[in-house]
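Students often ask why we bother predicting the structure of a whole assembly rather than each chain alone. The short answer is interfaces. A chain on its own may look different once its partners are present, and contacts between molecules only exist in the joint model. In this exercise we take two input lines together and write out one structure for the complete complex. Read the inputs first and try to guess which parts will touch.
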Amino acid sequence: MTRGSTDFTHENLLRELTPQVLGAVIHRFGDFGAAEDAVQEALLAAALQWPKDGLPDNPRGWLIQVAARRLTDHLRSESARRRRETEAAGPLSDYSVGSIFGTMGSASELDDTLVLMFMCCHPLLTSSSAVALTLRAVGGLTTAEIARAFLVPESTMAQRISRAKQTIRTSGVPFSMPTRNERAERLTAVLHVLYLIFNEGYTSSFGTSLQRTELSSEAIRLGRALHQLLPHEAEVAGLLALMLLTDARRPARTGPDGELIPLDKQDRSLWDQRAIEEGVALISVTLAKGAIGPYQLQAAIAAVHDEAKTSEQTDWPQILALYGLLMRMSENPMVALNHAIAAGMVHGPRAGLALLNALDEDERLAGHYRIAAVRAHLLERAGDRDAAVAHYLAAAQRTTSIPERDYLLTQAARLVNSQSPTPNSQDDR
Amino acid sequence: MKFMLMMNAPSGNGDWGISKWAPEELKAHITFMKTFTGGLAASGELVGAEGLAMPAQAKLVRAGKDRRPITDGVFPESKEFLAGYWIVDVDSPERAYQIAAEASAAPGKGGAPLNMPIEVRQVMSAPPVEV
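Now the answer. The structure tokens for the assembled complex follow.
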């Protein structure tokens, strides 16, 4: 992370304070877009000054004051400019400096953070805009940092964020909690955005991807904040547990050259035991409460994997049962695909293949590389080498991830070059 | 997801006979391209764009035995050539197709849309899923 010469603790403090400060400034000035810009300027000023002058007694107050001053200056020059332009010296309707300090919000700072999350993840925004805006306004990342993480030019990311703010402004989304009726849908949108951020970062830590792993950490940090704000929302806890339990395997997921290492070949001693313990504890407590949802079930599945000392000790019957439950809750065909994998592990590859054949009818999966990759794997286990090679290659043609393509091509090459035909095993699970 | 949009121009005099356009037709085309690319920048979707020099000087290069370049060309007979490309970062393939169709309709002779072929290819940038 680069924000001037800020040291690590300052950086963390600034990022934690970002949503609170922004919330306070929005309450004063009402204008989300302008407030967001002013808070970014204040963060930058802090990053430059604090390491030099030491931490102020009240960092939060300092930031609010600087942001408010910047915003006031901006509004003053804006109103002066308008006055010159229109030559009508009448009072300005929306940017009247006199009214700026009129309203102070009464909602708590914590609520502000939550409202900000709801706002930045509004369903009106495209998912890429919501992701960018959340990282900046709630996460406190700079535009340059976000641009680097998504491998796009800074100007592109700046435009995307500015567009998103404009969409919010013109749509008139109020800076307040969603109504009771909207709440479930809006929370789902927030969780989806956090999960997108997490997945974007959950990639190889090789070469240019290095920056991207920080996105996973950021998603977990925001997930923790959301869980603190809404401790009784089971799906929030479920998502946090899922991210912790998945991220725990990251050190084992790629080899020295960035190549993918599948779950059953990973060096489990590299898994982050602390993250696993935290995730398992969280999902266990949450599941016991009753209101089961898809994120919790996925976390439970991740926990079963993480708790197996070796790949052979994996409790596949339990995973199969959990996918069975998940299929009843989720329309996502990927869930059905994973269910087929689990069935293949419990009842043998032919059972898995039979389930895959049924999935061929699903248009949403048609031509998707994952179905070819899973079929290749099951065919290999069933001893049908030629068909397995063909499906590994078909999957490699269709994936849009480079490490994944390399993995699939390597699997095909391995099978082609294996000397004797694979024995026709009855059950090789 | 990122896509590369490649503008493939036919070779020979098949560069839509651009040398025979009236100056104002050429100007309209250039203005269109500038506005179009500017619009992609303003929407926060543009990752990069370049126009390539005409193929008159294009060379094919291979390494020789001493690893020095052996150049081959020019290729006036080749069927088509890459005239330029855009890389965009969008939310769906459909959006990439829509952008490509806009580029395809760039104005040519008499202001009529060229309907040129734009090859759309996804850039390998997706995070891998658990295997």
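Check your guess against this: Chain A touches chain B at residues 126-129, 150-153, 155-163, 199-204, 212, 246, 260, 262-263, 370, 373, 399-405, 407 (CB under 8 Å).
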